[in-house]
Amino acid sequence: MNNDEMRIEQRLKNMKKFYNKSGEFIDKLPDVIPDETKEMIKENILGDKELKKLMDGIDSHRPPRIFLIGRTGVGKSSLINAICGKYISKVSDTKSCTENTNTYLCKDNDRTLMEILDTRGIAESESLDDKISAEEMIIDEINKFSPDIAILMLNCTHRDDVDSDVEFMKKITKTYQRINKIRLPIVVAINKCDEMAPTRFKNPEEYPKNKIHKINEVVQYYKDIIVKSGLKIDNITAVSSLIDWKTPDGKEISVEYIDNLPIYDINNLEIAFDGRYRIEELLDILEEAIQDFEAQMGLRMASRLKEVVNRIAKQLTNIFSGISATVALTPIPTSDIYILLIIQSVLVSLIALLSGREISIKAAKDFILGMGGVLLGGYTFRVIAQQSSKILNVFWPGVGSAVSSTVAATGTKAIGNAAISYYIDDNTLDEAKKRFEKSKKEDLES
Ligand SMILES: Nc1nc2c(ncn2[C@@H]2O[C@H](COP(=O)(O)OP(=O)(O)OP(=O)(O)O)[C@@H](O)[C@H]2O)c(=O)[nH]1
Ligand SMILES: [Mg+2]
Fold it and tell me: Within a domain: residue 303?
C-alpha cells in the first residue's frame, strides 16, 4: 500500500469512529437542550439510512467485477485507466482465459481495484460456425465471472454496427437473469468523443458548442438503435478516456511504448495531459447501476484519492442537508438554529476528518459561526442555545426564530460546501466564506 492509500483508509476509519461516537457527543450537550431534542437529533443523524450505508461501506468493500465488451481498439483498457486516474497494471488470468475472453485484476501497486472480464466483440469472430460455439463459450465464461455490471463500449467517431453486440448482450442478460434472479446492469459508454470534429479541441473545458452538439447526436443515434432492439440498459453516455502520460522524469510517452518502460516508470506514470470527458458522470452512472453494495463502494474506492474524497464529501453534504430539512419540519422546544448548528458541526467534523485533519467539535462550531460573521466566533454552545434566535438573524436576516426546511437544507449545504472548500480544497477562510455565500445564492435561486 502506498502512503496515499493508507491515508485514505485511515481517514475513512477516523470518520467512522467519529460517526459512531456522535451519539455520545449529543448526549453531552448542555442541559438547556431538552432530552427529547437530543434524542431527535441523534435519531436523525444515526438513523439516516444513506449515512449509515456510507459508514458501513467503509469496512466492507470489494473490487467490483466489470464485464467490458467492445471491439479491439475502442478503448477498453484506456477507460479503466481513465476511471482510476492512473496507468493501471493488469495482472492477467485470475480465473481462466480463452481465445475470446480474458479475466484480469486491475492493480494499483498492491491494491486490487477491479476485476475485469474483457471480451472481444462477438462480431469479430471469423466464421458463423466459430461464432456459435464461441458465443456459448463466452456466455458460459461471463456467468462464471458473475459480473456486477456490464459496460458496452462503442466508438463516437465511427458508427459501429452495434446490432450483433446488442443481440449478444440480450442473450447474456437472459442467462444472467435466470441464474442470478436479477437483471444484469448494463451501461453503454461511447468513447473517443474528443475525436469528434472539430478535433483540435481536446481539452473538455474548451469543447465548442457544435462539438458537444455532435457528440449528443451520436448518443441519440446509438440510443435509438438500442431502444428499438429491446435491450434494457441502465444508462448511456459519451466519454473520452484520453490521457497522455509522462514518466516521473517528465518525458511524454506514447501509449504503445508504455509497456516497454522500466517497471518503476510504469508504476509511477503521471498525467501529462488530461483529456477526460464525462468520466465522473460515468462513475456516477456505474455506481447507481451496480446493485451490490460492497461492489458499489469498491468502485468508489478505485478512483483517485482526491476523487474518492470529493465524492464522499459531496455525498455527506447532501445527506446532512436532507437531515436538516427533516429536522426543521419537526416541532421542537428549542430554537432551530441551535439544532442546525449541532447537525452542521457533525457534518463539518466529518469533512475535516475526511480531509485528514484532526478537529474538535468546538473548532467545527467556530468554523460555522465564522461563516455568519467573525464576531460570533467565541460563543459557547450554551450561549448559542439561549441566544439563538438573535444569532439566526446573522445568518438569515429577517428569518425570525423558526427556519423553513428549504432554508435549513440550503444553509447546511452551503456550510458543507464551505467546509469542502476550506478543509479539502485547502482554500483560505475568506474563500470558504465566498463559497458559502455562492452556494446559498445558487440554491435559493434554483
Ligand atoms: N483520442 C482518444 N484516443 C483513445 C481514447 N481511448 C482510447 N484511445 C486510444 O485508442 C487506442 C486503443 O485503446 P485501448 O484502450 O488499447 O483499446 P482496447 O479496447 O483496450 O483494445 P484491445 O485491448 O485491443 O481490445 C490507443 O491508442 C488509445 O490511446 C479516447 O477516448 N480518445
Ligand atoms: Mg485492451
Answer: no
Mutate to test the pocket of ligand 1, among 71, 78, 84, 89 (most ligand atoms within 8 A of CB): 78
**Count of domains in the chain?**
2
Per residue in 343-358, pLDDT (tens digit) is 999 999 999 999 988 8
Structure confidence at residue 72 (pLDDT): 82
User: SS in 3 state form for 159-206?
Assistant: CCCCHHHHHHHHHHHHHHHHHHCCCCCEEEEEECHHHCCCCCCCCHHH
Q: What is the pTM of this model?
A: 0.77
CB 348 within 8 A of CB 368: yes
Mean pLDDT to the nearest integer, 235-250 = 97
Domain range for 179: 65-241+276-291
What residues pack around ion ligand 2 (CB closer than 5 A)? 76-77
Considering only CA atoms, which residue is closest to atom 11 of ligand 1?
73
Tracing cell 442541559 back to the chain, one arrives at 31
pLDDT tier for residue 193 given thresholds of 50, 70 and 90: very high
- Torsion sign (Cα): 127, 131, 133, 137: positive
What is the percentage of the chain residues whose pLDDT exceeds 70? 84
Residue 215 corresponds to which cell in the numbers above?
Answer: 457528440
Give ligand 1 pocket residues (Cβ under 6 A): 70, 72-78, 191-192, 194-195, 240-242, 255
User: Confidence band (pLDDT; 50, 70, 90) for 126?
Assistant: low
Does 152 lie in the same domain as 70?
yes
Check residue 396 and give left, alpha or beta (phi > 0: left; psi -120 to 50: alpha).
Answer: beta
Separation CA 96–CA 117 (nearest Å)? 10
Residue 265 covered by a domain:
no
Given a cut of 60, is residue 259 above it in pLDDT?
Answer: yes
**Ligand closest in space to the Cα of 73:** 1
